[in-house]
Protein backbone atom coordinates (compact mmCIF):
# COMPACT_ATOMS: atom_id res chain seq x y z
CA UNK A 1 0.00 0.00 0.00
CA UNK A 2 1.76 3.15 -1.16
CA UNK A 3 1.06 6.63 -2.45
CA UNK A 4 0.59 6.75 -6.18
CA UNK A 5 0.06 9.62 -8.65
CA UNK A 6 -3.66 9.79 -9.25
CA UNK A 7 -5.76 10.97 -12.19
CA UNK A 8 -8.66 13.33 -11.46
CA UNK A 9 -11.02 11.73 -8.97
CA UNK A 10 -14.00 10.02 -10.57
CA UNK A 11 -16.26 11.46 -7.87
CA UNK A 12 -15.00 15.01 -8.51
CA UNK A 13 -15.78 14.60 -12.20
CA UNK A 14 -19.21 13.18 -11.38
CA UNK A 15 -20.00 16.11 -9.09
CA UNK A 16 -18.96 18.58 -11.79
CA UNK A 17 -21.06 16.76 -14.39
CA UNK A 18 -24.19 16.81 -12.23
CA UNK A 19 -23.67 20.43 -11.23
CA UNK A 20 -23.35 21.42 -14.89
CA UNK A 21 -26.73 19.84 -15.57
CA UNK A 22 -28.55 21.09 -12.50
CA UNK A 23 -27.48 24.69 -13.06
CA UNK A 24 -29.64 24.61 -16.20
CA UNK A 25 -32.75 23.80 -14.15
CA UNK A 26 -35.03 26.57 -12.89
CA UNK A 27 -34.64 27.14 -9.16
CA UNK A 28 -38.39 26.90 -8.64
CA UNK A 29 -38.40 23.35 -10.02
CA UNK A 30 -35.87 22.07 -7.51
CA UNK A 31 -36.78 24.22 -4.48
CA UNK A 32 -39.20 21.63 -3.02
CA UNK A 33 -36.51 18.95 -3.08
CA UNK A 34 -33.97 21.31 -1.49
CA UNK A 35 -36.55 22.05 1.21
CA UNK A 36 -36.99 18.31 1.79
CA UNK A 37 -33.23 17.91 2.22
CA UNK A 38 -32.84 20.86 4.60
CA UNK A 39 -35.76 19.62 6.71
CA UNK A 40 -33.62 16.58 7.50
CA UNK A 41 -30.70 18.48 9.05
CA UNK A 42 -30.38 17.77 12.77
CA UNK A 43 -29.10 19.96 15.57
CA UNK A 44 -25.69 18.27 15.50
CA UNK A 45 -25.17 19.34 11.89
CA UNK A 46 -25.74 15.93 10.34
CA UNK A 47 -28.72 14.77 8.30
CA UNK A 48 -31.20 11.93 8.67
CA UNK A 49 -34.49 10.86 7.14
CA UNK A 50 -37.64 10.56 9.20
CA UNK A 51 -37.14 10.23 12.94
CA UNK A 52 -33.65 8.73 12.70
CA UNK A 53 -30.61 10.26 14.34
CA UNK A 54 -27.97 11.87 12.14
CA UNK A 55 -25.95 9.32 10.22
CA UNK A 56 -23.04 9.50 7.75
CA UNK A 57 -24.98 7.93 4.84
CA UNK A 58 -27.82 10.48 4.86
CA UNK A 59 -25.37 13.32 5.55
CA UNK A 60 -23.28 12.21 2.57
CA UNK A 61 -26.28 12.32 0.23
CA UNK A 62 -27.48 15.65 1.64
CA UNK A 63 -24.11 17.31 1.08
CA UNK A 64 -23.96 15.80 -2.43
CA UNK A 65 -27.40 17.24 -3.22
CA UNK A 66 -26.65 20.72 -1.89
CA UNK A 67 -23.22 20.78 -3.54
CA UNK A 68 -24.87 20.61 -6.96
CA UNK A 69 -26.44 24.05 -6.55
CA UNK A 70 -25.01 26.91 -8.54
CA UNK A 71 -24.28 30.41 -7.22
CA UNK A 72 -27.37 31.68 -9.02
CA UNK A 73 -29.61 29.02 -7.52
CA UNK A 74 -28.24 29.59 -4.02
CA UNK A 75 -29.06 33.29 -4.23
CA UNK A 76 -32.49 32.70 -5.80
CA UNK A 77 -35.31 33.98 -3.58
CA UNK A 78 -37.00 30.55 -3.70
CA UNK A 79 -33.94 28.69 -2.40
CA UNK A 80 -32.00 31.26 -0.38
CA UNK A 81 -34.31 31.16 2.67
CA UNK A 82 -34.15 27.36 2.74
CA UNK A 83 -30.36 27.53 3.13
CA UNK A 84 -30.29 30.47 5.51
CA UNK A 85 -28.49 32.76 3.07
CA UNK A 86 -28.73 36.50 3.63
CA UNK A 87 -29.70 38.75 0.75
CA UNK A 88 -26.27 40.40 0.89
CA UNK A 89 -24.37 37.10 0.61
CA UNK A 90 -22.01 37.46 -2.34
CA UNK A 91 -19.49 35.00 -3.69
CA UNK A 92 -19.46 32.57 -0.77
CA UNK A 93 -21.96 30.14 -2.27
CA UNK A 94 -23.60 27.94 0.35
CA UNK A 95 -20.56 27.08 2.42
CA UNK A 96 -21.42 29.77 4.98
CA UNK A 97 -24.70 28.13 6.01
CA UNK A 98 -24.82 24.38 6.29
CA UNK A 99 -21.27 23.16 5.67
CA UNK A 100 -19.71 24.36 8.92
CA UNK A 101 -22.25 22.45 11.07
CA UNK A 102 -21.73 19.39 8.83
CA UNK A 103 -17.96 19.65 9.30
CA UNK A 104 -18.45 19.81 13.06
CA UNK A 105 -20.62 16.70 12.85
CA UNK A 106 -18.03 14.86 10.74
CA UNK A 107 -15.25 15.81 13.16
CA UNK A 108 -17.14 14.17 16.04
CA UNK A 109 -17.90 10.93 14.22
CA UNK A 110 -16.20 7.79 15.58
CA UNK A 111 -13.73 6.02 13.35
CA UNK A 112 -15.62 3.93 10.74
CA UNK A 113 -15.45 0.19 11.21
CA UNK A 114 -16.48 -0.95 7.74
CA UNK A 115 -16.07 -0.12 4.07
CA UNK A 116 -19.36 1.76 3.75
CA UNK A 117 -18.56 3.93 6.75
CA UNK A 118 -15.12 4.75 5.36
CA UNK A 119 -16.61 5.71 2.01
CA UNK A 120 -19.17 8.10 3.52
CA UNK A 121 -16.59 9.69 5.82
CA UNK A 122 -14.03 10.18 3.06
CA UNK A 123 -16.64 11.44 0.61
CA UNK A 124 -17.91 13.98 3.13
CA UNK A 125 -14.37 15.22 3.66
CA UNK A 126 -13.85 15.44 -0.11
CA UNK A 127 -17.03 17.43 -0.76
CA UNK A 128 -16.49 19.75 2.20
CA UNK A 129 -12.91 20.41 1.05
CA UNK A 130 -14.23 21.39 -2.38
CA UNK A 131 -16.50 23.90 -0.63
CA UNK A 132 -13.53 25.32 1.28
CA UNK A 133 -14.32 23.74 4.67
CA UNK A 134 -11.89 21.43 6.47
CA UNK A 135 -13.10 18.26 8.19
CA UNK A 136 -10.68 16.10 10.14
CA UNK A 137 -10.26 12.50 8.97
CA UNK A 138 -7.87 9.82 10.23
CA UNK A 139 -6.82 8.75 6.75
CA UNK A 140 -4.22 6.23 7.92
CA UNK A 141 -6.70 4.32 10.08
CA UNK A 142 -9.31 4.28 7.34
CA UNK A 143 -6.76 3.11 4.80
CA UNK A 144 -6.17 0.03 6.96
CA UNK A 145 -9.91 -0.64 7.17
CA UNK A 146 -10.40 -0.25 3.43
CA UNK A 147 -7.26 -2.26 2.64
CA UNK A 148 -8.70 -5.26 4.49
CA UNK A 149 -12.20 -4.92 3.09
CA UNK A 150 -12.10 -8.28 1.31
CA UNK A 151 -11.33 -10.07 4.54
CA UNK A 152 -14.46 -8.66 6.16
CA UNK A 153 -17.09 -9.38 3.49
CA UNK A 154 -17.31 -11.52 0.36
CA UNK A 155 -16.25 -9.65 -2.76
CA UNK A 156 -19.15 -8.15 -4.71
CA UNK A 157 -19.57 -5.48 -7.35
CA UNK A 158 -21.00 -2.76 -5.11
CA UNK A 159 -18.34 -3.12 -2.41
CA UNK A 160 -15.63 -3.19 -5.06
CA UNK A 161 -16.58 0.19 -6.53
CA UNK A 162 -16.81 1.67 -3.01
CA UNK A 163 -13.31 0.38 -2.28
CA UNK A 164 -12.05 1.81 -5.55
CA UNK A 165 -13.48 5.24 -4.67
CA UNK A 166 -11.96 5.05 -1.19
CA UNK A 167 -8.50 4.24 -2.53
CA UNK A 168 -8.77 7.14 -4.99
CA UNK A 169 -9.79 9.54 -2.21
CA UNK A 170 -6.88 8.29 -0.08
CA UNK A 171 -4.51 8.71 -3.07
CA UNK A 172 -3.53 5.06 -2.80
CA UNK A 173 -3.26 2.37 -5.43
CA UNK A 174 -5.98 -0.27 -5.15
CA UNK A 175 -4.45 -3.65 -4.28
CA UNK A 176 -5.00 -6.62 -6.59
CA UNK A 177 -6.94 -4.68 -9.25
CA UNK A 178 -6.69 -7.55 -11.75
CA UNK A 179 -8.49 -9.87 -9.33
CA UNK A 180 -11.22 -7.29 -8.83
CA UNK A 181 -11.59 -6.80 -12.58
CA UNK A 182 -11.85 -10.57 -13.14
CA UNK A 183 -14.45 -10.89 -10.37
CA UNK A 184 -16.61 -8.16 -11.90
CA UNK A 185 -16.34 -9.51 -15.44
CA UNK A 186 -17.48 -12.89 -14.11
CA UNK A 187 -20.67 -11.21 -12.84
CA UNK A 188 -21.72 -10.22 -16.35
CA UNK A 189 -24.93 -12.06 -17.30
CA UNK A 190 -26.42 -13.20 -20.58
CA UNK A 191 -29.12 -10.51 -20.29
CA UNK A 192 -26.42 -7.83 -20.59
CA UNK A 193 -26.44 -6.69 -16.99
CA UNK A 194 -24.31 -7.47 -13.98
CA UNK A 195 -25.83 -9.41 -11.09
CA UNK A 196 -29.29 -8.71 -12.55
CA UNK A 197 -29.67 -5.17 -11.20
CA UNK A 198 -29.25 -1.59 -12.39
CA UNK A 199 -27.12 -0.61 -9.37
CA UNK A 200 -24.68 -3.51 -9.82
CA UNK A 201 -24.49 -2.85 -13.57
CA UNK A 202 -23.76 0.83 -12.96
CA UNK A 203 -21.08 -0.04 -10.41
CA UNK A 204 -19.49 -2.59 -12.75
CA UNK A 205 -19.36 -0.20 -15.70
CA UNK A 206 -17.92 2.59 -13.53
CA UNK A 207 -15.24 0.31 -12.09
CA UNK A 208 -14.25 -1.16 -15.44
CA UNK A 209 -14.16 2.30 -17.02
CA UNK A 210 -12.01 3.72 -14.21
CA UNK A 211 -9.58 0.84 -14.62
CA UNK A 212 -9.74 1.00 -18.43
CA UNK A 213 -11.04 -2.55 -18.81
CA UNK A 214 -14.53 -2.03 -20.25
CA UNK A 215 -14.80 -4.33 -23.26
CA UNK A 216 -16.56 -2.55 -26.12
CA UNK A 217 -18.06 -5.88 -27.18
CA UNK A 218 -20.33 -6.03 -24.12
CA UNK A 219 -21.52 -2.42 -24.29
CA UNK A 220 -24.52 -3.05 -26.62
CA UNK A 221 -25.82 -5.74 -24.26
CA UNK A 222 -25.44 -3.41 -21.27
CA UNK A 223 -27.37 -0.70 -23.11
CA UNK A 224 -30.19 -3.13 -23.97
CA UNK A 225 -30.37 -4.33 -20.35
CA UNK A 226 -30.57 -0.79 -18.97
CA UNK A 227 -33.08 0.29 -21.60
CA UNK A 228 -35.40 -2.56 -20.63
CA UNK A 229 -35.04 -1.83 -16.93
CA UNK A 230 -35.57 1.92 -17.29
CA UNK A 231 -38.68 1.41 -19.43
CA UNK A 232 -40.67 0.65 -16.26
CA UNK A 233 -38.60 1.71 -13.25
CA UNK A 234 -39.99 4.44 -10.99
CA UNK A 235 -37.25 4.08 -8.38
CA UNK A 236 -35.10 7.27 -8.21
CA UNK A 237 -31.80 5.50 -7.37
CA UNK A 238 -32.28 3.04 -10.24
CA UNK A 239 -33.26 5.81 -12.62
CA UNK A 240 -30.17 7.83 -11.70
CA UNK A 241 -27.75 4.90 -11.91
CA UNK A 242 -29.24 3.76 -15.19
CA UNK A 243 -29.07 7.25 -16.70
CA UNK A 244 -25.52 7.79 -15.47
CA UNK A 245 -24.36 4.54 -17.03
CA UNK A 246 -26.06 5.29 -20.34
CA UNK A 247 -24.47 8.75 -20.27
CA UNK A 248 -21.07 7.16 -19.66
CA UNK A 249 -21.65 4.81 -22.61
CA UNK A 250 -22.92 7.60 -24.87
CA UNK A 251 -26.32 5.92 -25.21
CA UNK A 252 -28.86 8.36 -23.77
CA UNK A 253 -30.74 8.33 -27.08
CA UNK A 254 -31.65 4.68 -26.45
CA UNK A 255 -34.33 5.60 -23.89
CA UNK A 256 -37.60 7.50 -23.80
CA UNK A 257 -36.40 10.44 -21.72
CA UNK A 258 -39.83 12.09 -21.55
CA UNK A 259 -41.42 8.94 -20.10
CA UNK A 260 -38.62 8.65 -17.55
CA UNK A 261 -39.01 12.32 -16.66
CA UNK A 262 -42.72 11.79 -15.96
CA UNK A 263 -42.05 8.75 -13.76
CA UNK A 264 -39.30 10.59 -11.93
CA UNK A 265 -41.60 13.55 -11.27
CA UNK A 266 -44.32 11.23 -9.99
CA UNK A 267 -41.91 9.59 -7.56
CA UNK A 268 -40.34 12.85 -6.36
CA UNK A 269 -43.07 14.05 -4.01
CA UNK A 270 -41.30 16.43 -1.59
CA UNK A 271 -43.72 15.40 1.15
CA UNK A 272 -42.46 11.83 0.88
CA UNK A 273 -38.85 12.49 -0.11
CA UNK A 274 -36.07 11.43 2.20
CA UNK A 275 -32.51 12.64 1.82
CA UNK A 276 -31.41 9.86 -0.51
CA UNK A 277 -34.41 10.01 -2.84
CA UNK A 278 -34.14 13.82 -3.05
CA UNK A 279 -30.48 13.49 -4.06
CA UNK A 280 -31.21 10.88 -6.72
CA UNK A 281 -34.10 12.91 -8.11
CA UNK A 282 -31.90 16.00 -8.38
CA UNK A 283 -29.04 14.02 -9.92
CA UNK A 284 -31.31 12.29 -12.44
CA UNK A 285 -32.88 15.65 -13.31
CA UNK A 286 -29.40 17.01 -14.02
CA UNK A 287 -28.57 14.15 -16.38
CA UNK A 288 -31.87 14.48 -18.23
CA UNK A 289 -31.24 18.20 -18.68
CA UNK A 290 -27.77 17.50 -20.09
CA UNK A 291 -29.25 15.01 -22.56
CA UNK A 292 -32.06 17.31 -23.69
How would you summarize the topology of this molecule?
Elements: H1 10-22, H2 27-38, H3 56-67, H4 71-75, H5 80-83, H6 99-108, H7 115-130, H8 139-147, H9 149-152, H10 157-169, H11 177-186, H12 198-210, H13 219-230, H14 236-248, H15 257-267, H16 275-291
Helix pairs in contact: 1-16, 2-16, 3-7, 3-16, 6-7, 7-10, 10-12, 12-14, 13-14, 14-16, 15-16
Broad structural category: mainly alpha
Q: Average pLDDT, to the nearest integer?
A: 88
Report the uncertain regions.
1-5
The tally of beta strands, per DSSP, is: 0
Number of helices in the DSSP assignment: 16
Short description:
The protein has 292 residues and is mostly helical. 60% of the residues lie in helices and 0% in strands.
Describe what this molecule looks like in 3D.
With 292 residues, this protein is mainly alpha-helical. The protein has two domains: 1-174 and 274-285, no CATH class; 176-254, no CATH class. It is 60% helix and 0% strand. Helix 12 (198-210) runs parallel beside helix 14 and helix 15 (257-267) runs antiparallel to helix 16 (275-291). The longest helix is centred in the C-terminal third of the chain and has 17 residues, at 275-291.
Features:
disordered N terminus; 292 residues; globular; 60% helix; 16 helices
